User: Fold Mycothiol system anti-sigma-R factor from Saccharomonospora marina XMU15.
Amino acid sequence: MSACGGSDESGKVNCDEALAEIYLLLDKECSPERDAELRKHIEDCPPCLEEYGIDVQIKQLLARKCGGDLAPAELKSRLRASIRETVQQRGGLRYAETEIDIEELQTPDGRG
Ligand SMILES: [Zn+2]
Assistant:
């Protein structure tokens, strides 16, 4: 039995849905019921849990360094790639301990 798959069970969240709604979860834009369904799936599904962990880390970093949603999408995607790499290198969900230098990822704009 695999943790992922089996999308014909009604009421169950599949990976595509979970991944698509991780941002909503983080922003608390889901209904409480949906929130619970998504979290249930994510906790039982290592790939989704990893993705969720990455997004949590991105959000925390951006909140700390950039004051939230002011960061451009490009920076977010670079952060995501960088965190994913770190997580894979460490072979676990140690995203909470990753130290990403957001300054390194930002391209200096308009110097001089
Ligand atoms: Zn999943």
Q: What stands out?
A: The two ends are 59 Å apart (CA to CA). The chain has one domain: 15-105. The longest helix spans residues 46-66. The CA atoms of residues 33 and 39 lie 10 Å apart.
